[in-house]
Specification:
By secondary structure, this protein is α+β, with helices and mostly antiparallel strands. The model has no long low-confidence stretch (mean pLDDT 80).
Amino acid sequence: MTLDEIVPALDDTQRADILANLDQILQWELQQVRRLDNVEVHQATADLLQSLIDTLTPEPESDGSWIEVKTINGKKYEYKRWREGGKLRSQYMGKVQD
């Protein structure tokens, strides 16, 4: 499977867990770069991790919202998500057409 196939199938919890783990690894790699310990390898790894984080992070719409796809009982549904007053809000958009 490619990343383009995996990312849309992730639910919010899976996406958050992956992003948290990737961020921890990225911080370690950047720490190694600062320590000048095999800089080229760690910088390349940090760049790759940042690319993965960017891919997994939903693109915001002009109003600051983003669209997420959730799989429920094998069917995919779209939700518009945004933050309001520090809370994550969502609006059901409909079933994803195959």
